[in-house]
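Notebook, p. 212. Picked up where the previous page left off. The plan for this session was modest: take the two constructs that came back from the sequencing core last week, fold each one, and keep the raw output in the notebook itself so nobody has to go hunting through shared drives later. Recording the first one now, exactly as returned: residue sequence, then the structure token string.
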Amino acid sequence: MTVRPALGQPWLPVRAIEFSDEWSKDPGVLPLGQTARRRIVIRTLGATADMLPPQPEIRASWLISLTSPEKRATELTPLGPLATVVWEWSLRPKTGERGVIPEIRIPYFDTGSGAPGAVLLKAAPVGYAAAPDATKTAAWRSGFTGLLYPTLGLALGLLVPFVALGDGMRPRSRAELARLLGRRLFE
């Protein structure tokens, strides 16, 4: 008998493995303030539920991540134990910045073929969709470019102190300013 070297940890010998990765909403374009729910189901033939890996942590500084308790079950069949594990997370960006949840890799050993393998749960972008009024905001801001508004601001900045101080360079009272402005505007 020949003994092969160990494959490393974790050691998950299975005859067959399948998985599903579902999202309640597209995580890359969430409506503002909404949460996406990620659900991963892994089923193996030839291993018991306690042999399956623990639920991975999904954590990032830009992400609010709530982890539901995992569900594990083993069903005995004529072909061997059929194990199922269900993992769920509720995910929402904290500040609206986009981020990417890294891929999750679950190594296993296929006892039928005698070869190692891995289940790869794809990386996923998480972020809010652009606000529908973002184009209107950009159009509004574009009106303040150019020389018109800075020139107008400079003129008002020089005119207001001149009117307030007048010829004698002394501050005028409100009554004097009102009379002066009334005379100049209505003459």
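Okay, moving on. Second construct, recorded in the same format:
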Amino acid sequence: MLRKLTINEVITALKLEILSGREGINRKVTNPSLSKPGLELAGLFDFYENDRIQIIGSKEGTFFHWLSEKDQNIRVRMLFEKQPPAFIFSKNVTVPEIFLSLGNEYGIPVLKSQYSTSSLFSECFSFLQAKLAEKTTMHGVLMDINGVGVLITGASGLGKSEVALELIRRGYMLIADDVVEIYQIEKGILIGEAPELLKKNLEIRGIGIVNVVYLFGAKAYRESKRISLLVQLEKWDSFKKFDRLGLEEEKQLIFETEVTRVQIPITEARNTATLVEAAAIDFKSKVLGYHSAREFNDNLIRKIEENQKKENEEE
């Protein structure tokens, strides 16, 4: 299903100033991409992406003033006739009068940002991607552990929220509990966050809903986090084979992104929070280039080869 938001939501999020076309602030935005209409100002409208918010930066503003007054009027009107969602001018660009008058005439918001062109483009694109990207939900707890976004999953009743509580007590951050909303910015980058109603809350059975910011302070919570590791908790099963060396690397596909997954068997005797913390730190060490399991395996192979060589020499 196509997700939508209004220009008014964009105005609020980016703290934009409304210069004209106020009656159009409830216009819908469905495309998370942005457009800079430089070619259109030059007269080429064959590729005009009129379903996108139009960003007018320093280059477009400067080129506009090189045009004759006749060309300015014709081309700007053509921009408005295609009914884009809105025009946003960056910080250092003076807004021409023709944009203000046509904004009111067509009911299309003409907005002013306090960001420079590159920052405006980046901030606006990030906001639109977060709001308009296709989302999926997973049952689990998302934590920021030493900079690693760890999504803890497993059957209901295994104690995922209790694990999160202990990790928060150790200084790590909660992103979402119970329901994690996930969207893909681009292939390879997944972002997780909590639904609006559940933000900052953690459900502990026997205690109830607790607000982690109220209990532990602002350092215990963050709004969203890139998901780098899936930790699946499972009840101990002596008949099931679990990876003991750590040489095998499992992946789980979410949208078009493969995420590393580890399975951790739990019992009453195992400290699950410590195991999840260790998994996150081990993952980070691998990203940084150190793979302890491979080092152990290499040392083991080297030792076997040395012993075989020694035995052959003795024979």
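Notes on construct two before I forget. The chain is about 35% helix and 30% strand.
Flagging for discussion at group meeting.
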